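Q: Here's a chain of 206 amino acids. Please give me its 3D structure as tokens.
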Amino acid sequence: MHWINIVAYIGLVAALAFLVLTVVLHFLPTGAHPLRDALGDYAARRFGGLMTAAILALGVGALAIAVALAGELGAHGGGKRVDVGVAFMVIFAAGMIIAALLPAAEEGAQPSTAGKVHTAAAVIAFIAFVLATIAISPVFKYVVAWVKLAPLFPRLELLVVVFGILMLLARVKPLRAVFGLIERLFFASCLVWLLLLGVHLSQIAR
């Protein structure tokens, strides 16, 4: 098995861990409201350790998939778009890891330095992921091993962009009540994009 397959498997397992932990957390009595509250807010509530682990796993997973993707597309002369896209994926991964290690403040509490860093890291990470999908998604149609999957990436890219914009707009009062829902849709589209990469990278024969 090639190192790209191994690293992709690590990323795939970590991304799936994020999914499982997040779903489980929504069935636990956390006191959080899924329509209103951001996922990061769960870290400051009961069973918050699960959300911290989930966000950390997502960061690690995205980093591993970025490394595997750089190795795979780099071998096929992916070009500057791939380099830029992978760089944005690494920024996203770093933002998620920082956001996990510095959780948001509890609801109603005075914003702390850690909470402010958490918010800034999350916002930067979200923007970076949107830019990563824009940079990388069009490349796959030019790589033989990815041609069959190539049409899926622009569609997922569109979902990531749309939900990313809506999530930023949801910070405004009229949409604040559904910020949690929009953020979950954004995370879902990001996760599908990552999982599609991870599955294919783990199976590519070298």
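Q: Can you summarize the key feature?
A: Residues 3-203 form one domain.
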